[in-house]
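This part of the workshop introduces the protein records we will be handling. An example says more than a description, so a record of this kind follows:
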Amino acid sequence: MQESYVKYCVANNIGVIEFFTPQHNSLPAKILSQLAETITAAGKDNESKVLILQSGGDKTFCAGANFDELLLIENEEQGLEFFSGFANVINAMRQCPKFIIGRIQGKAIGGGAGLASSCDYCYATVHAQIKLSELAVGIGPFVVGPPVERKIGTTAAYELAIDANNFRSAQWSKDKGLFVEVFDTIESMDKAIDKLAATLATSSPDAMKEIKKIFWKGTEHWNELLKERAAISGRLILTSHAKNAIASFKNK
C-alpha cells in the first residue's frame, strides 16, 4: 500500500502542494499538520509566485477526516486537537499571501469540501461531487462551515449541512460559485490550470498579495472562531451517536 505524504515542488515559479493517503485521501492528524506547515512555508518561499493545491490519485480529492483516528478520540482535549488540524490548514490557506488554485479531480467530502472552499480559485472535473457528511456521523460541519459559507453562501451551505447523505454535482458547485469551471477530463482541467498558473507566475507578487488580503477581509477572527468550532466537534465526537455512526460507516 502506498505511503501517505505531503509534497511541495516548484517549477517556473509555480508551487505545487500535493497530499495523499491510501484511505481515499482522508486526512489523519499527522498529514493535516504537515499540510498546514507546507502551505505556510510555501507562502514564504520566494521561488514560487502562485500555488496549486492537489491530491494524489484520480478518484477522490479528499474524503475528509480519517475515521480510524476519530474512533480513537477519548476526551475533549484530544477532540479539540484533532479538529484543530483542519482549522490550522484552513487558516494557513487564507493567510497565505499567494493565490491558491484548487485542482479538484474527484469527490470532496466534509473536510475536503472545506479545503476546496478555502482555495482562491477552483477548477474541477465532472467527477468532483461534494458533500458535507458530518451530520450523518453525529457531528456537524463546524470547522469547515465558515469557508464553505463564505464561498457559496448561507443558503447553499445550509442545504449541504442538512442533507448530509447526498452528493451535489460538480455543476451544482459551479452554479453556486465554488468551482470556476468544470471539465470532462483531468487532462483538460490540468491544461487550464497550467495556463492560469503560468499567467499568475509572471504577475506582480505584491499586487496579488494585496488582492488576496482584500478578498479575505472579514476573516481576521477565524483563528479564534475555527478553534471554537473545533471544540464543538471535539465534544460531539465523544457521543455514542457519533461513535456508532462512524463505526457503521467503516463497516460498510
Q: What stands out?
A: The chain is about 50% helix and 15% strand.
